[in-house]
Amino acid sequence: MWLEIICGIIIYQLFRRFFYGGNDVLDVETSDFNAIFSVANRLEKLCGGKVYVGLNIPDADTGSRKSIDIVLVTKGEAAVISVKNVSGFVSINDDGSWTSEGGRSHRKERIPDPVAEAKNTASVLESYLEQRGVTLPEGYFSYKVIIPNPNFREIYRNFPPEVITYDQWVQLEPGPKGMISGWVKGAFRGGKKEMQDSFHQQLNFILSTAPMWDRLELKGSKHVLGEFLEFKGKQEDTLALRNIKRSKVGHMAVQKTSMLGLAHSKLQVVYYPRDYRSEGVSASECREVEVRSSTEVIFHPQNSTKVRKYKLSSISSMSLSA
């Protein structure tokens, strides 16, 4: 009996290593990214608008880039959303920063003022849009901080109105009486419909072509935002994948993984035109590439000091920013 148990454990570990590369910290590393995508999906259903996830906008004042979790755009209103996957007992300090105790790290943690950070992020985005020729009405963008973690507990209940706590988040409903609809006043109330449509078309085009983090979708609906670096594996496989680079490729989907024989993965690669100076729609091109499933994607997750390796067998898709 013990021999059967041991053999079962070995087989499970080999299976896990084959599909997930033996990455035991995968769930911890992807939890914050999963929270962002979960919030984005729910916002789209609540508001009926368009959401943009993982923007990485140039900040002219600092010469660096500003990460934006979510931008929500609906008719007449828009909001910059910061997602804080905070757990434990959380209180607000005099300087606006937060202190969390008893969360995932099991120790006291200080979080810089999320509301001030979201406000600054909205300002950076407005400057970027103006540089790309969008004239924004005054106060068009609002900013919110959403806490989707069910293990969040607020102390003293003195969070500012820009913060949507977990209890408030799960109670949000679509419609004119919901909290979402009051985030931003209608920017073009009383204006011509043609003007509104033209503005939103321009705004959505610029946001859809703005710099973003690269993204991986892993098996099990796990997400990672960061920077794709390269492929590692057998020489014939890396040669077959040499044209998958951000200057040419927008999306790569792993269609099928075979565990028979040498275990190969079939990839559907979508080549997008990368010249966004014109708003004209250009045709994309799809190609299929088949390589070993053990081929690795070398990826640097956002806000991480470590570079990670993900086997193709653990990946559902990869999207590259221009």
TrEMBL record:
This is NERD domain-containing protein. Residues 31-148 form the NERD domain. The gene is LOC107909050. It comes from Gossypium hirsutum. Transmembrane segments: none annotated.
